[in-house]
Amino acid sequence: MSDRSYDLVLWGATGFTGRLVAAHIRDHAPADLRWALGGRRRDALDGVASDLGMPDLPIVVADAHDRDVMRALAADTRVVCTTVGPYAVHGTDLVAACAEEGTDYCDLTGELQWMRRMIDAHQADAEASGARILHACGFDSIPFDLGVVFTQQVMQDRHGAPAAVVHGRLKAARGAASGGTVASMVNILGEAVTDSDTRSLLRDPYGLNPVGERQGPDGLERMLPQRDDDFGAWSGPFPMSPVNTRVVRRTHALLGHPWGTDFRYDEAMLTGSGPVGALTAAGIGVGMSVGGVVGGLLSAAAPTRKLLERVLPDPGTGPSPDAQEKGFFDVRFVAEDPASGTTLRTRVLGDRDPGYGATSRMLGETALALAAGEATVGGGHWTPGAALGDSLLRRLPAAAGVTFTVLD
Q1: pLDDT of amino acid 92
Q2: Could you tell me which residue ranges the Saccharopine dehydrogenase NADP binding domain spans (predicted)?
Q3: I need a surface site. Which of 79, 111, 171, 284 has the fewest CB within 10 A?
């Protein structure tokens, strides 16, 4: 790949999240990194370069829906990092191009149905070309995926064996969901109403696993409130768990099932210890169940979908720098080995809002790790934990404000 013009192209650099990723790369990239900004409009890209204080930064102008143009872009860089969603609408041609050209790739998608399509359609090409394709490299799903990898590493080091069960819980967070995340959720709900394959995937806890490994002991995410004795609080369903749990299970499969073929993982959201916590957990479950049905029906119909797009957050907007700095997330894990009675508690803490500040830095570090050649696996569709687990466990505390600690 020495004849390629760039080490890294940031695609979608003019969007709100794209600008944040660009600033992170500027601040943390090695001096000799050959990188460029990519998007549809040169004037907007020139503006981003100027705002970065890098007016001579190379610009790549292209159309995400032109397969030949996307292939030319992929052929001219070693790594593509993209923030352009919904990915099911705007990302397919870029993934196909990277898989064909042997170009490493990372994104922010949490769109299960699209990830599965990309795996099924382009796994063989990526394996043949050597392209490492990494989805879900933001708050969906790095804190959870890497949190489980970290927890199992500590279990192995301290107790000589991994945990058979890990429980992940969002303890607290401050920050609104990003406009891009909301747009992706609307797209998923609409597809679930009209497409039986999408509905089947959402009901399959192992739907992202490799072919032949799409089975195991875990069931669907629970929707009812539960007294969570491990955490001394009530818990309810976590909206991101359908994505995170499947990413964690794919990581386990890609690593060769090091935590055992009966390994189980679940996620929920802690809501408090008293009656208010129980009512809150119940309300979340009802809201998600009813909201999912209603939202799916609305987003499947063209007129109401357009109305939703007008009233929901714009994918190109986001919080102020002050709001990003005041945001945070706190994720807890309890690992258990029922046979020996051993338990371990860990925490993943982020010091920026999850939807923008933390997400942009996690994606930026993933892209920089790929550009630095830190993924030693072969080509194919990987998860952050399977392809860059040790690398990101070093990088994120140092450069992204995401820390991994043992609480016991």
Answers
A1: 98
A2: 9-132
A3: 171
